[in-house]
Automatic annotation (TrEMBL):
GO terms for molecular function: ATP binding; GMP synthase activity. Residues 2-194 form the GMPS ATP-PPase domain. Homodimer. Catalyzes the synthesis of GMP from XMP. It comes from the Bacteria. The chain holds residues 207 to 525 of 525 of the full protein. Pathway: Purine metabolism; GMP biosynthesis; GMP from XMP (L-Gln route): step 1/1. Keywords: ATP-binding, Glutamine amidotransferase, GMP biosynthesis, Ligase, Nucleotide-binding, Purine biosynthesis. The keyword Ribonucleoprotein does not apply. ATP binds at residues 29-35. This is GMP synthase [glutamine-hydrolyzing]. Its EC number is 6.3.5.2. It is an enzyme of class 6 (ligase).
Length: 319
């Protein structure tokens, strides 16, 4: 019968057979999928693997540091960390259309990735943490025949000219199975239990033009929200929770004064594969506590709303 230990052993043998003495590069995003793929491949071929972490400056608070610490220091995986935040934020200046944002980030990601891959001397194979739902959802979508709802930049994204064979050990797995595999590989719960995070990062959680200031603001809001969710013991019951920084300013009152600051939305959903999702039913006391902390602790945000849309008809991310 099928077991995760069996899958691990089979995949390791398969990776070794496919790669031989070749060299593999893997794009690491800090997310669950690429992390598990990297650790599995590292277990199979050790230092024949180099991971490239393209940091677009649109990650959650403290995340970049955590990626480096975990993979380089704890797992001893060869890791290139490229801080390309200036490049990405520069290219996103004034870009408001969600698909243009996604395509801009996707294109730059490939450019920077290629640059770093060349710098480490190239490779014969490219590893990706592609999952089964990614494979399906990028081909068509539940919303209708061959309609692209959103272009996922991390699926089959690299150009032909890189001429590398793909190593995709997670291609037949669903998210919950990837997590199980991660546990099987001894990976810390902080990484494998983490909520999914989109490749384009906070850029698609800032409707309208993205700036470094807005990204910094959103990181603060998001980290308060996640901290409260963890404290309440709700993190694992939720598929994905995050904040969105809205492109509106609203009037508020603080002490004796009037404020005219930005509004944000909180989102939390339950799901099994991200294809459909239900709103997480927080109790009001929780929501008002989070709202109170955000408005009091994050200067520049004076209003908090909760998104109560399920998928469909909404999508999980706002863009
Ligand atoms: P939507 O917003 O389409 O999201 O309901 C479904 C799931 O996919 C994630 N998502 C992405 N993941 N690259 C990714 O790796 C992307 O470009 C991307 N866009 C959305 C989203 O966070 C949710 O878990």
């Amino acid at each position: 019968s099928w077991t995760m230990a069996g899958f691990r052993a089979t995949e390791i043998a398969r990776i070794r057979a496919q790669v031989g003495s070749g060299r593999v590069i893997c794009g690491l995003s800090g997310g669950v999928d690429s992390s598990v793929a990297a650790v599995l491949i590292h277990e199979a071929i050790g230092d024949q693997l180099t991971c490239i972490f393209v940091d677009h400056g649109l990650l959650r608070q403290g995340e970049a540091e955590q990626v480096v610490e975990t993979f380089r220091d704890r797992f001893n995986i060869r890791l290139v960390h490229r801080d390309a935040s200036g490049l990405f934020l520069g290219a996103l200046e004034g870009v408001t259309d969600p698909e243009v944002k996604r395509k801009t980030i996707g294109r730059l990601f490939i450019e920077v990735f290629e640059e770093e891959a060349a710098r480490v001397g190239g490779a014969d194979f490219l590893a990706q943490g592609t999952l089964y739902p990614d494979v399906i959802e990028s081909v068509s979508f539940t919303g209708g025949p061959s309609v692209t709802i959103k272009s996922h930049h991390n699926v089959g994204g690299l150009p032909e000219r890189m001429r590398m064979q793909l190593v995709e050990p997670l291609r037949e797995l669903f998210k919950d199975e990837v997590r199980e595999l991660g546990r099987e590989l001894g990976m810390p719960e902080t990484i494998i239990g983490r909520h999914p995070f989109p490749g384009p990062g906070l850029a698609i959680r800032i409707p309208g033009a993205v700036t470094r200031e807005k990204a910094d603001l959103l990181r603060k809001v998001d980290s308060i929200y996640l901290e409260e969710i963890r404290t309440a013991g709700l993190y694992d019951a939720i598929w994905q929770a995050f904040a969105v920084l809205l492109p509106v300013r609203t009037v508020g009152v603080m002490g004796d004064g009037r404020t005219y600051d930005m509004a944000c939305a909180l989102r939390a959903v339950t799901s099994t594969d991200g294809m459909t999702a239900d709103v997480y039913p927080f109790d009001m006391a929780f929501l008002t506590r989070v709202a109170g902390r955000i408005v009091n602790e994050v200067r520049g945000v004076n209003r908090v709303t909760y998104d109560i849309t399920s998928k469909p008809p909404g999508t999980i991310e706002w863009e």
